[in-house]
Amino acid sequence: MSFDLSVIPHKNIILAVTGGIAAYKSAILVRRLKDFGFDVRVVMTHGAQAFITPLTFQALSGNPVHTELLDPEAEAGMGHIELARWADLVLVAPASCDTIAKFANGLADDLLSTLYLATKAPVWVAPAMNQQMWAAKATQRNLQTLVEDGVHVIMPDAGEQACGDVGLGRMPEPEDLARQVAAYFHKAQRAIAEKFGLLAGKRVTITAGPTREAIDPVRYISNHSTGKMGFALAAACYAAGAKVTLVAGPVSLDTPNGVERINVKSAMQMLDASMNQLEEGCDIFIATAAVADYRVAEVAEHKIKKAGDELAVSLVKNPDIVATIAQQQQRPFMVGFAAETRNVEEYAAGKLVAKKLDMIACNDVSRPDIGFASDENAMTVFFAQSYHLEKRELEKASKQEISQQLVEAIHDALLQK
Ligand code: PMT
């Protein structure tokens, strides 16, 4: 499973490390959590400090490490109540038998057990211990109490243990734990987006990238589109709560998290895939693809051999995908893009009318710093007259930021529909 970090909100994690040999894995866990963009503060019990030093965690987390309940200096900075409030999630890894027993019985005789009682944040425990201690009735009884109290217990892995035993009790790998935490916040964020996002519940189809029109089995006609604009827009629409399908020409980009992708090569294939999406249900159609306007009339079955000084290839017009979809009776909200090298706004406004679109975003592709292949873009957005919306200038910014502004523009127009 992969995650688009841009849709995981900034969150504060308290990683509580208790006494056990698995504490060494927690150092790597700090790194992995930070990789996901989390702010991490480490709390250590006295037992944990017998296995690994606070200094290690301080260096890795970039934050002071909290070890004492009644340390006046620590309480003056971030005391146990502030820590409990700061946390969006408390992850206890490894969680020793002793800590589990304290949690289950409401003891409050050190920083971690006090923090546990004082926090409103979800608490996750990743028990790690000898397999016999894991199986002990008291441990299982305490774990059952924690589950009943709403604590999320992460099952330990089975395998060879530091003490030589074989069985359940190993702490899961740090990558795995960090991924579970990220998935938790990702899922929560997704649920919010689906309920309250600007495009909550909308079905969006986006064409992206170039098309490739074959000349013979080894040659083709294409253009400079890389798909970056369309893929960024797909991620932004998904983050805004939409169900997104990308109809992608041949590009070498990873599919944004949560987005369905259909790969095509030619304009005819892109049209077919787009029409299928219309049949499956589409509320918003966005055409960022640079579709070849013409294709070769007759594609040679075999590689064309070099012969005379000149070679004439006859071309025929491709169907206009976005215009075809705009003509359908049950048409979605139609968003076109316009790539121009001169008279940018005039030509774009013409396409808005000619293709019967609701909205068009144009960019000047003669500029080397924006448009094709660049990570940035600058656009002017026009709306169909019926929307009574002023044109919008989107200043030069990353394609991700431009996409968020386009999502807002689509949302504003939909409000008027
Ligand atoms: O992919 P990147 O490297 O990130 O570059 C982004 C981009 C420059 C390709 C993008 O920002 C952009 O401008 N896309 C539109 C490119 C284009 O083909 O524009 P156009 O003016 O030729 O076409 C107008 C509209 O009709 C577009 O929405 C296009 O997708 C659509 N069209 C065109 C021809 C055709 N046969 N079918 C279509 O649907």
TrEMBL record:
The protein's matches in Gene3D superfamilies, at most eight in alphabetical order, are given as: CoaB-like (3.40.50.10300), Flavin prenyltransferase-like (3.40.50.1950)
Domain of life assignment: Bacteria
Required co-factor(s) are:
FMN; Mg(2+)
Alphabetic keyword roster: Decarboxylase, Flavoprotein, FMN, Ligase, Lyase, Magnesium, Metal-binding, Multifunctional enzyme
Q: Which reaction does it catalyse?
A: (R)-4'-phosphopantothenate + L-cysteine + CTP = N-[(R)-4-phosphopantothenoyl]-L-cysteine + CMP + diphosphate + H(+); N-[(R)-4-phosphopantothenoyl]-L-cysteine + H(+) = (R)-4'-phosphopantetheine + CO2
Question: What note does UniProt attach to the cofactor annotation?
Answer: Binds 1 FMN per subunit.
The cellular component terms of Gene Ontology attached to this UniProt record, alphabetical and capped at eight, are: phosphopantothenoylcysteine decarboxylase complex
EC number assigned by the record? 4.1.1.36, 6.3.2.5
Looking up NCBIfam families in the UniProt record yields: coaBC_dfp (TIGR00521)
| Record-given protein name | Coenzyme A biosynthesis bifunctional protein CoaBC
The source organism is: Acinetobacter haemolyticus
